[in-house]
Amino acid sequence: MDKTLHIVGGGMAGSEAAWQAANMGVDVVIHEMRPKVGTFAHQTGNLAEMVCSNSFRSDDDEQNAVGLLHWEMRAANGLIMGAADRHRLPAGGALAVDRDPFSEHVTEVLRAHPRIRVEEGEVSALPDDGHWIFATGPLTSTALGQAIQAETGAERLAFFDAIAPIVYAESIDMDVVWAQSRYDKGETEAEQKAYLNCPMTKDQYEAFIDALLAAEKTEFHEGETAGYFDGCLPIEVMAERGRETLRHGPMKPVGLTNAHKPDEKPYAVVQLRRDNALGTLFNIVGFQTKMKYGAQTEVFRMIPGLENASFARLGGIHRNTFLNSPTLLDDRMRLRSRPHVRFAGQVTGVEGYVESAAMGLVAGRFAAAEILGQPLAPVPQDTAMGALIHHITGGAEAKTFQPMNVNFGLFRPLEDVRGGRRGRKDRYKGYTDRAKEAWQGWLAGQDTAALA
To answer: Where does FAD bind (predicted)?
Structure first.
């Protein structure tokens, strides 16, 4: 059998899988359909292009599960995290990146690797032999989706991933808006002022909610259903759940003081996060939407400070395809009906850039080790990676399976640690300490096997 590893899809997961496998000594071919076959969300043919937010979320590896995932990927010499660190932007306690230089860097590194070849063109069928990883992401092509559906015998599941709008910085009224990260998070002044804040009075908030609910929305295509992932709900869907929902979600006013009117507490706050290194673009945090473009412009210009906003990109919404992984994949990410085929990334039922890249990392290592005749032990369940894999390959209820971000709710409980909110800090530190030890042990086992 050919010893080459074929990876379909050059997004976060496919790029990371290729990097990991090639560095283990395996020849890799990345099959990427772009730019020959485009998608509505992608703008370039670059690998690891960021099409939604530019944030990798929290970088706290002691108190946050996604920050722990960052740590594990860095410990495994992850390409995606290395590129993110290289092109990071101020974002308080979060890790945000300059999206175009980030993807350009990943593309250059992979194309320059002596063991990696990139082939442009669509793969529309599951192969009968060879070594394969399918990391086609939320925008899996129709033809390939149909092939997966035919193989699994199950209907494709779908949810809708919404895109937040991006505003030109020069069009933001800084006499109204002020720069501050929530609770002044960050060690530097740039981090502490990474967000722009637009304050609302109660009357302004109520008028905004009325306009949001009345705005014209995009229609669903025939056969589609509104099965949104709760971590990425369009703002109008949140507003439909209750008029106060947004004020206790992305528009919460806590941890912020209006620099222009320090004695006046805003009733609600809309935050904007820097979207590029130049500071010329800002995205509206948590404002994914399926409003029509004309309605978006009208509604978003009701936000104080954005009355004259000019938009580099308006929000959108797209279908996201994912497997019912608990019924289809084993703990090495293999398709049970075709063990020579693995899946990685969002198509497996994880949500987010970091989670997608993490699943690519482990899939790439599993596939390379198998090709080299040195199969790896399962990823320890007490790691962030292992918690995710366990969830999608059996820990979740198959009948109600939905995409999941990494979170401490996926981790096995700790003994002798206080529960509830008051014990949360010690509990989270316990989770991360235990995970780091287990992850380092898993990586060390591979190093030992390589030396044997």
So the answer is: 9-14
